[in-house]
Amino acid sequence: MGTPVAPALPPLWELEIEDCLAFLATERNHATNSQLINHTALLAFGAWMRRNLGEVGPEAVDVETVVRFLREERLARELSPASIKVHVVALRHFFRRLHASGRIPRDPTETLDIPKIGRFLPECLSEDDVGKLLSVPFPEGHLGLRDRAILEIFYGSGLRLAELTTLRIESVIREPEDNGGGKGMALLRIIGKGNKERVVPLGSKALAALDAYLDNARLYLATGKSGGEIFLGRNGTALTRARVWQIVKACALRAGFAKNVFPHLLRHSFATHLLENGADLRVIQELLGHASIATTQIYTHVDAARLRDVHRSHHPRSRLPSA
């Protein structure tokens, strides 16, 4: 048996959902990922409404209906608090928009609480582990040069996966060569979450790896259908996020890592190592593209946790006497 298909939405629901998403994209500058997440959540709610309440419009929804939907979704799909939060946020956007435009008399989500989610400390690699990962032999040829540049840029600039796959040739800002004739520094112009632009430095090793790829590999991967994206696949099109994830995993396996190594782990490592080596938290916030310093502050907890572990392991007054 195939996967059951959700019933089609009534035209009114489809129109209202599309209007809400268009408003969030143009007026609130929601990123593509956020639009897709909201779209999926709102379609799920609309389909649930049709299955359970028939051909009624958004004006028939009250807070009890929303709570019932959330409860049934959580039980049926074993959703985590984070997934429930996604649904709540999407529904609040939707009904707030309808109420503000006068299309419904009240907002049924106005008193709905957003689930609190425990904050987990991000994993990261040690500096030695990063060195081990980046020194692993890469495949010979064009793809090896590409893969090395990908890993160096992830760790050297702290990019998100989506930011790396959309990185373009014109994103690289080169500074003048130094007086000795050596290559100058380079910057990357990044379009991050919410289409917010930031500029991050590209370290010397990451720049060397990028230039090796651009000078000796990319032109051979490019075809007539290639765009301006820096990282291309065998067929000349931009690498997908899934493919970049596979590349990072493959490099980690060759380096002998048993732990799960993924693109965002290198971003966490970038931030943690900056903090451990004395970088200011505000600077790290800017480099990561965090809208709020509160998001960046999680790395102070990582650093403190490591300090506690070191203290417990090595300070004579922290070790319990053996029995």
Report on this structure.
The protein has 323 residues and is mostly helical. It folds into 2 domains: 90 residues, DNA polymerase, domain 1 (Orthogonal Bundle), CATH 1.10.150; 185 residues, Orthogonal Bundle (hpI Integrase, Chain A). The protein has 13 helices and 3 strands; from the N terminus they run αααααααβββαααααα. Strands 1-2-3 form a 3-stranded antiparallel β-sheet. Strand 2 and strand 3 form a beta hairpin.
Q: Indicate the radius of gyration in whole angstroms.
A: 24 Å
Helix/strand structural class: mainly alpha
Q: What is CATH's topology name of the largest domain? A: hpI Integrase, Chain A
The share of residues in extended strands comes to under 5%
Low-confidence stretches: 1-7
* Tally of individual helices: 13
Order of helices and strands: HHHHHHHEEEHHHHHH
What is the topology, as strand order, of the major beta sheet? Answer: 1-2-3
* Count of DSSP strands: 3
At the fourth CATH level, what is the homologous superfamily of the largest domain?
A: Intergrase catalytic core
What would the principal axes of the Cα set say about the shape? Answer: globular
Q: What distance separates the N and C termini?
A: 61 Å
**Oligomer class:** single chain
Total count of domains: 2
Determine the fraction of residues in helical runs and give it as a percent range.
40-55%
Query: What is the CATH C level class of the largest domain, in words?
Result: Mainly Alpha
